[in-house]
Write a structure and sequence with these properties.
Order of helices and strands of chain A: EEHH
Order of helices and strands of chain B: HEHEEEEHEE
Oligomer: heterodimer
Largest sheet of chain B: 5 strands, antiparallel
Radius of gyration of chain B: 28 Å
Number of helices of chain A: 2
Shape of chain B: elongated
Strand content of chain A: 15-25%
Strand order of the largest sheet of chain A: 1-2
Distance between the termini of chain A: 29 Å
Number of strands of chain A: 2
Largest interface: A-B, 19 and 23 residues
Number of strands of chain B: 7
């Protein structure tokens, strides 16, 4: 079974850095939002290669489904 | 006719004034109900006044809070002015009120600087407590939400000694 993993780092001031792995596309952001209530508090968002790869795969799959 | 006057330092903060009076050897004592019964003063004393070891015709010279300032109440002519030390058998000589207030003013300035330093330290401690509470609240909230959403939580510290929560779940 695929594993979803979130590593949360809380710095000395209470700021959070979170890194996800094992999520599909934007579900990682949704998962982080569920965990940390991110609305209006994100100062920096860096999407990983995995994020883009998953998005590309998903897009390709959707296009294939449409063609068939 | 012209005149030049100089007023003494405004004594605003009681604890600073008491410290200043101690520094100049004026042996301050705050007037309580008990002291009020024992101490005689022709001009009248009130609970809360701060007695000094200086006395004059009316009795012990003392400070009273008037319009948010501590004011020295004394005989204007300083008749029978003397110092009655409760702690030392060797009594220091009596100085005129103006000179005494100037001395207290200098001690007050010094005590006030210490007071500001103490306030700054208290503020630093308060902010530090707030910071710790904020980190702890963030940590607890993250752990509680993670568990509620089916993650297993492992807590560690990274190389910078920051809290690190590793959340995992299988889907």
């Amino acid at each position: 079974m695929p594993e979803q993993r979130v590593v949360i780092t809380i710095d000395e001031e209470g700021s959070i850095t979170a890194k996800t792995s094992g999520f599909k596309g934007e579900s990682c952001l949704a998962a982080l939002d569920d965990l940390l209530d991110l609305d209006g508090i994100i100062t920096n968002l860096k999407k990983t290669d995995e994020y883009h790869q998953r998005q590309t795969v998903q897009l390709a799959r959707r296009q294939e489904i449409k063609r068939t | 006719m012209s005149a030049v006057i100089k007023t003494n330092t405004p004594f605003i903060i009681e604890s600073v004034l008491v410290e200043a009076l101690q520094a100049v050897g004026a042996e301050p004592v705050k007037v309580t109900e008990n002291i009020l019964q024992d101490q005689r003063h022709s001009g009248g004393l009130l609970v809360g006044d701060i007695l000094t070891n200086r006395s004059d015709y009316y009795g012990l010279q003392h400070f009273r809070l008037i319009n948010n300032r501590w004011v020295l109440r004394h005989d204007s002519s300083e008749m029978s002015g003397r110092v009655k030390s409760a702690k030392s058998a060797v009594s220091k000589g009596y100085s005129r009120v103006g000179a005494f207030l100037e001395l207290v003013g200098q001690a007050y300035e010094s005590a006030y600087q210490q007071y500001l330093g103490m306030l700054a330290e208290q503020e630093r401690i308060r902010l530090e407590e707030e910071r710790k509470a904020r980190v702890e609240a963030t940590r607890q909230q993250a752990i509680a939400k993670a568990k509620a959403q089916g993650y297993s939580v492992k807590e560690t510290r990274n190389s910078k000694n920051q809290i690190q929560l590793v959340l995992t779940r299988t889907v």
